[in-house]
Each structure stands twice: as structure tokens, then as C-alpha cells.
Prior knowledge:
It is a single chain. By secondary structure, this protein is of the alpha+beta class. 44% of the residues lie in helices and 17% in strands. It is built from 9 helices and 6 strands. The protein has helices spanning 4-9, 12-22, 31-38, 42-54, 78-88, 134-148, 159-167, 171-178, 191-198; strands at residues 58-63, 66-71, 105-111, 125-130, 154-157, 182-186. The strands form 2 sheets. It has a 4-stranded mixed sheet with strand order 5-4-3-6. Strands 1-2 form a two-stranded antiparallel sheet. Strand 4 (125-130), helix 6 (134-148) and strand 5 form a beta-alpha-beta unit. The longest helix has 15 residues, at 134-148.
Amino acid sequence: MPEILEILMGSKSRARVMRFFVLNPGKNFLFAEIREKTQIPTNDVRKLVASFIKVNLVKTSTREGKKYYTLNDSFTYYNELRNLFVKSNVYPHCTEVKRIKDVGSIKLVMISGVFMNYNRAEIDLLIVGDDMDRKNLIEVISAIEAEIGHEVKYMALNVEDFHYRLEMMDRFLIEFFAGPHDAIINKISKLSRFISEIKR
């Protein structure tokens, strides 16, 4: 089913580029960076950015001969737009996450952070599996970032390393499991019980 915001805003391109600006306030981007991070065709990005500048959603600046684009966070409807896009990024609205299962022999995929509107998380995505194709994984992460308009912090571990860290009560993993998270794939035996014991 097409994303609700794509229907409301008339196109995937408009929703994606607007989301990119709204969820990255205070950051300056070159045109090439906007194109790369949103994965939208150049001509479409150019037209959309021009229309956003026209209504004062986006502003420009020049440094060392280079033109930068940034969100105008004093835009009249900024808070409303931000709330709308934050809610739309909560899984399962992010469809690209499901592609992770195809990057190798995946045993565990867990989300937190940006996917659950939990700003305190150190990572947004935990991936455990063997024989992972790193190039494919990076492509999928880039696609996820393009879809949600925000950088995704992730950790990818092989199964042996993951079990070792659990046995050592790795602080990073313990804190991840103790916070808000959700399992998209979980083929790790007894992990659910382990997490339940942490939260007691």
C-alpha cells in the first residue's frame, strides 16, 4: 500500500524531499547531497527545492562559492510537519527495513531510536547474521535513510560475536535491550527470555 504521506502530498518525491529537510533542521546541504541522500532524480529534486524555497520552507546560503540549502525552522507549519513526519517514520511505515533479511543469513533484526521516536538510543538498528554482503547491507541502509529522511545508526554483528558479547554482558547490548525496541526478525534461541530477565 502506498505511503499515506505520498498520497496526501501527491508524490513519493515530494514527501521524501520535504521529510529530508524537516527532519534535519540546522544542517546545510549541497544540492548533490540532497540528491544522494533522498535517492530522487536530479530534475525532480531541483523542481521540489525551488518550490520549497518559494514558500519559505527552505532557505539558501553561499559559502566559498558553493550554494547550500537548509530548512527554515521558522516556517509557519514547521512543528506540524515535523510531528507528521516523525509519526510516519515509526515502523512498520518504513518498508525498506524488510529488505535487510536479504543481505545474508539473518538471525536478528531489532529496531529502536528513530524508528520508535526514542532519541536516547545509541543505535537505531541492530542486525545479527552470518555471510552478510556488506555492499548490499550498505545499499539497504542508504535506502532506509532515503525513505525516512534521517541518518540511521546501526550495528551489524556475526552470530558468534553476538553470543560472545551476550555472555560478557556487553554494556552496549544490555542498554539497547533495556530501552524501547522491537524485533523484526528473531531467530536467536532464548533471546526473548534473556531480555525479559534484564527488564525485571
